[in-house]
Amino acid sequence: MSNRERGLMVKGTTNGSRQKAVERLLTRILQVPYRLLDLLEAVKDLRTLEERTYRLIAEVTCDALGILLEALDDQFRAEVQAPCEGKAVRTLVGVVGEIRFQRRFYRGLGFVLDERMGIPGRSRISPWLREWAVEMATEASYRTVARWLSRWTGQSISHQTVWNEVQTWGEQRIQEQARERERVFGEGRPAPEGQPIAWLHVEGDGVAIALQKRGRQPDDPRRGELKVAIAYEGWEDEGRPAKRRRLKHKIAVLGMEDSQAFAERTRLAVGRHWSWEQVLVSGDGAAFVKTMAEELEASWYQLSRYHLRKAIHEAIHDASVARTVWDLANSGQTEKLFEVLEAYQAALRGKARNKVAKLIGYLKANEDGLADYRQRGLKGIRADQPGIGSIESSNEQIVCNRYKKLGRAWSVAGADRLARLIELQHNGELAAWLRAHSPFQAIDTTAVHRALPPVRALLPDDPEAWLRARLPALSGPANPTRHALAGLAGLRLSA
To answer: If DSSP codes are grouped into helix, strand and coil, which group holds residue 104?
Structure first.
């Protein structure tokens, strides 16, 4: 037990005072309709009414949960043989607000209520609110997430709290994936295999992101490369609008690690989903994409059509020559292609000549990927199917909106941790992963169910009589107010 918790120790609570606390809570719940009527009389717009109603319901709910948890702790006392050293206050900030309750500390056992409710030590954020924070942080800045969570919960949640959650969970995901890589590529255990498919399409690209100045040496790079890969089975019709297609069963892999580690992780990621006969890898010629192609044992490597077209048009300003070069590259006529480029280069001078020389070098470095795979007569590939090139739009959706907008700069470690969580979110796995790895354990239902009957006994045996004693308006002749209050209290009154 920490010194802070020792400082929060309070005296025990008697059953009589607990009974009174429950009755005060019930009275507060019954007063909600009156408080709502007071709000209707006091507020001047629906927005204020809605906000203050939400705060009222949240406040009463948090108080109710806190009192019931304390009542459970009272019941656990009879089952624990260790001496009690006092009580300490615990606060959990959840989606509905702040839940405060006192629980006993037992020598040698700690806080039994926390253990049986699955609440870990030193955790102030509830599991559901943690999920909200991490999921939102994959799409919005830490400050934006903190601002919205503070508004929703009515509590003060700092951007540092959101940042800490992302770093903690991102690092846990990194370590988990590193252990999986070691089991498969280090220890030689079998890799996962998913459903069999004929062709798998994989695209890779690097996105340059700004790095923070803090801790950077003068000769350190100002920008880092966030590696991105997407894999998918093919295409399917969207339905509306007509003739639009989308990628079928797309998954993404993101990270800041070295090329070999990223390639191995991509192999594991796609292997969990598919077992393929043929795989087509596409990229801009970057080293990590070719490493990925080797790791996947690619049947065909293709230079990205987007980058091929961009390289040609940046170097060649004659439209007819550019078109000829494009056609020759797509058809795989590399010998003829370089003859045309060298002849065009010979007629140029200065910067224009250097640009063509650079283009020639780029195309020769990717000569094995120039031909359009749809024109090679590959089994299972139709000439009229869509071309490869979805990575650019995926980069915009997955990476750029979060990393490159609003002038943000990153540490390598921070960018990598966030990337692993964005990967889970994009693949629809983040919420389930967070729940599976949550420090909040399952509730000890056996112990809790055993303690519930005495807690339930704190509630009135005859709710109708108890309510009438505290709400005289429920008694007497029938009238609209009486029936309205009875309805809110869940009672059926006789005529």
So the answer is: strand
